[in-house]
Amino acid sequence: MTENRKKILEMLAEKKISVDDAYRLLNTIDSAESGQESTSKGGTTAKAKPKYLRVTVLPDAEHEHSQNVDRVNVRIPMSLIRAGIKLTSLIPSEARDKVNGALREKGINFDVRNVKPDDLEELIGSLSELEVDVVSAKGEKVKVFVE
Hints:
Blueprint: H1 3-13, H2 19-33, E1 38-39, E2 45-46, E3 52-58, E4 72-77, H3 78-87, H4 93-105, H5 117-127, E5 131-135, E6 141-146
Antiparallel strand pairs: 1-2, 3-4, 3-6, 5-6
């Protein structure tokens, strides 16, 4: 076991980090050790492509071990998102017009026909830097991130 792994597990045991944080850190170490991160011409390390979009909702520390609290852990493969974008070309025009109309009603000027796989790759690349952390008034922690 590497020194970094031990430190992560110690922080988890001391409750300095959550199980989710430990999981992400261990995955980062795994990908670095397996050579998934590549070195570019400039000698800088490029991040591996994200494989999953994650959304978690965890109870506050006080209720963490309680059975009567809601927990959410959604892990969506990026390949599913990519396939979904490709399927937009199969949406019948009537349904596409209804979706676009509903979006416009909500103030979103967006046309489903304009979504292209290349645009998605750029978006996914941008998501690799995204991490959203929200703590609710009840102390629940909501996280959205890619891994």
